[in-house]
């Protein structure tokens, strides 16, 4: 594409503490190897963006003029171990420097053929051509080891203006890989200063291409969507995504917008888990199952959504509002840590800050009856054990944990009798 670009791509030289912090011994040793073999190497992607924002660089990724084969020969000569060889088909080699730190180094490339999900690539030594194939301008910059920031397509300007823009024509970029729709919203949440400062033309193009997401795997969509829902403006971005018809292609064909609005009004200041936002959009547990079949949640995430949808109306109007939650934790067959986190999220979902504080101070009591005590009190072995323990535990919880072991033992005969009658 014949894109408007800078004649001189170097826009500034970084000389900040955050920039100097990236130079561990391992980074310096990686640089020396490439210099020795006369291949150019620069820092690419997210680290450049973070450093320009005055933040610490989290993960360092590198781009180079060396081909994967040249890198393999070079690292083999230098006796540097390479790991994760699956990246080689994408042009990425991962050396382990000083047997201490792994770095992903990717050959400069151009996309020759794309089908909306995968690309056939050709290697190049032209940095501008590599920048040209990237999705967003803020992700198309490189950083030299001397601090020079190379910005061919005005990503630095967009970063300063907190603007999210595709490199070139958004329609072309999105059709190359439809997951870029999700990445647009993810980076908007990371970079933008206001929730509603989108470029309308870009949103129109996204709407026209939303159907392409139906051919992208649920795992890839969930990876991006989860990051969106962990970032800034999560609820507003979710609503905007539904406005541009993304919902039906990612497993949300009939979202409950009204419930989402209520959630945002009462709870968005409470650091909600991504599953809370999605649970608000789901009308019943069958919807949870359908969304899980599309996005492939972890079992922890899936069960949190089930719990919220099933229990969101059960802590209203009770004289002891935490009773339902306490029973869930004390009777739960899942890990107690997970059960506690589910309850905490449910209380955040409902906007119950005071109840959440009260719950967080609750010392979980230990049920004073066990199988040995039942046996000592001549309870016949078998299925009745579980039923009796469950009934005694309910009575103990209802007493606000005041019933002692002796009190509960005295209740055993009446509980046995009740079970026999049933």
Automatic annotation (TrEMBL):
InterPro entries: Bact_CCA-adding_enz_type3_sf (IPR050264), NT_sf (IPR043519), PolA_pol_head_dom (IPR002646), PolyA_RNA-bd (IPR032828)
GO terms of biological process kind: mitochondrial tRNA 3'-end processing; tRNA 3'-terminal CCA addition
Domain tRNA nucleotidyltransferase/poly(A) polymerase RNA and SrmB- binding residue range list: 200-250
GO cellular component terms given for this protein: mitochondrion
Cofactor(s) for this UniProt protein: Mg(2+)
Superkingdom: Eukaryota
Keyword field: Magnesium, Metal-binding, Nucleotide-binding, Nucleotidyltransferase, RNA-binding, Transferase, tRNA processing
Leader sequence residues: none
Poly A polymerase head domain span: 42-164
Gene Ontology molecular function terms on file: metal ion binding; nucleotide binding; nucleotidyltransferase activity; tRNA binding
Family to which this protein belongs: Belongs to the tRNA nucleotidyltransferase/poly(A) polymerase family.
Protein known as: CCA tRNA nucleotidyltransferase 1, mitochondrial
Lineage: Eukaryota, Metazoa, Ecdysozoa, Arthropoda, Hexapoda
